[in-house]
């Protein structure tokens, strides 16, 4: 027997491993098919390494640790919670808004039983799912009527399709935006069957541009929030008030896609770049659309608020059925909206608002807590609290730097890139930033409940 054959003969069989004490233990905790798969894989890797003449660790302990790692991967869900240390509050890649306690409780409460989703209890017959959030949306936004669908992209598509299919929609060239890879206003317009009638220029659009574009094919005047970009310098745009007046004069409905859409007045928090939904509704605009999971801080959804006759027309569109909201989302939505009844409390109760409006001092305190805990455990790294800035995200307030505090870590034992990768690939994943060769953990989006595990994971990696 040569050296390789000798090594190969020391490898255990799948069956031996399965019947070992360790194997029996695994079968108790993991599905048997995953245990078999992981053991087979653990043995195969070693066999391949031996044949290729690589050095192989054949100790039982290492092999068991490898297999256990594979078992954890195999049996874990694909969609899982993680720690957002980027400071971007409404992070589209990281699930946008974290739900409030009340929303979470209500989702569980409604979905662990049957519900009156489409049942009118008083009348004892079929009802409509849309009624459940109408009253509260009317109350909170001041609009005549409201409808919630799958997301804001669907809300925009529905409005365009309902009112302008085969007809023209007037829109400023300064508002032909792309929001994330797959939502581009001209494409959405085409998909809805509406004909885009561009007016003005990239930087300047005047009221007369709209006036001149109106003809017998005009179905709608639209305004779209630019979301993730700004035009600065020599610019001019027509206000929603002016467009509403024009629409009234010419008897053409006006829509405003607000994108994020805030339900609170942000002025008291020193953030006033855009009007709230309530203010927009007050202008008399025919319908307004916005997301449920951006500044509103609820589950994914698209809200349309506006005049009753318009909402009724949209509700009758067959596409509404295809983009309807599900009961879990409705439960989350109703509970999230109910938080807005108490204007004092809402910014403390909805995580998105809490993270956006928390005072720099509070963030600093949290950063200090994290840094302090890390310093106690770790000696071979430079750990400090630094002033930095974070972003709102979600196309909301794109220009605005929110002053924040972060924990910066520079380790002697591990490169910053490897550090970032190990944090990201561990369990739970921790998503951090790299800046000037230091790993940056922005305390704004790190939740209190995550501090313990965050410190533990970092300590494990650096020590
Ligand atoms: C984000 C955004 C949308 C899309 O909303 P979703 O809820 O992501 O579908 C549409 N319009 C504007 C202006 C936006 O900012």
Explained architecture:
This protein is of the alpha/beta class and 463 residues long. The chain has 3 domains: 3-75, no CATH class; 83-91 and 358-462, Aspartate Aminotransferase, domain 1 (Alpha-Beta Complex), CATH 3.90.1150.180; 101-349, Aspartate Aminotransferase, domain 2, CATH 3.40.640. It is 44% helix and 16% strand. It contains 20 helices and 15 strands. The strands form 4 sheets. It has a 7-stranded mixed β-sheet with strand order 4-10-9-8-7-5-6, with helices on both faces. The chain has a 4-stranded antiparallel β-sheet with strand order 11-12-15-14. The mean pLDDT is 93. Pyridoxal-5'-phosphate (PLP) is lined by residues 151-153, 156, 179, 183, 224-225, 227, 257, 259-260, 291, 302, 395.
């Amino acid at each position: 027997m040569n050296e390789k054959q000798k090594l190969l003969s020391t490898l255990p069989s799948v069956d031996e491993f399965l019947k070992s004490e360790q194997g029996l233990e695994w079968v108790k905790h993991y599905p048997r098919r995953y245990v078999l798969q992981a053991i087979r894989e653990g043995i195969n890797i070693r066999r391949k390494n031996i044949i290729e003449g690589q050095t192989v660790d054949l100790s039982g302990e290492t092999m068991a640790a490898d297999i256990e790692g594979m078992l954890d991967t195999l049996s874990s869900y694909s969609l899982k919670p993680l720690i957002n240390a980027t400071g971007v509050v409404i992070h589209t890649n990281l699930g946008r808004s974290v739900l409030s306690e009340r929303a979470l409780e209500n989702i569980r409460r409604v979905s662990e039983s049957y519900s009156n989703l489409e049942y009118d209890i008083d009348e004892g017959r079929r009802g409509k799912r849309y009624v459940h959030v109408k009253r509260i949306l009317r109350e909170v936004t001041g609009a005549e009527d409201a409808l919630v669908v799958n997301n804001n992209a669907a809300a925009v598509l529905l409005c365009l399709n309902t009112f302008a299919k085969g007809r023209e929609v007037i829109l400023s060239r300064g508002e032909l935006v792309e929001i994330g890879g797959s939502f581009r206003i001209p494409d959405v317009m085409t998909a809805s069957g509406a004909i885009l009638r561009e007016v003005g220029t990239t930087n300047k659009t005047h009221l007369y541009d709209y006036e001149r574009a109106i003809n017998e094919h005009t179905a709608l005047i639209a305004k779209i929030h630019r979301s993730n970009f700004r035009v600065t310098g020599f610019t001019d745009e027509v206000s929603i008030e002016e467009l509403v007046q024009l629409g009234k004069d010419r008897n053409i409905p006006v829509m405003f896609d607000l994108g994020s859409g805030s339900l609170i007045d942000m002025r008291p928090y020193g953030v006033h770049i855009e009007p709230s939904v309530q203010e927009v509704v007050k202008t008399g605009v025919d319908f307004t659309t916005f997301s449920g999971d951006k500044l509103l801080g609820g589950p994914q959804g698209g809200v349309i608020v506006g005049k009753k006759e318009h909402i009724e027309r949209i509700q009758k569109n067959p596409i509404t059925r295809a983009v309807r909201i599900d009961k879990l989302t409705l439960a989350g939505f109703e509970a999230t909206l109910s938080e807005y009844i108490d204007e004092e409390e809402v910014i403390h109760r909805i995580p998105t608002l809490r993270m956006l409006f928390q005072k720099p001092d509070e963030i600093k305190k949290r950063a200090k807590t994290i840094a302090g805990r890390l310093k106690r455990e770790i000696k071979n790294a430079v750990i400090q609290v630094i002033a930095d800035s974070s972003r709102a995200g979600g196309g909301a307030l794109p220009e605005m730097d929110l002053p924040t505090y972060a924990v910066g870590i520079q380790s002697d034992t591990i490169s910053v890139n490897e550090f970032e990768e190990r944090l990201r690939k561990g369990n739970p994943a921790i998503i951090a930033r790299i800046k000037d060769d230091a790993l940056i953990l922005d305390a704004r989006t790190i939740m209190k409940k995550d501090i313990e595990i965050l410190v533990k994971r970092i300590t494990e990696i650096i020590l």
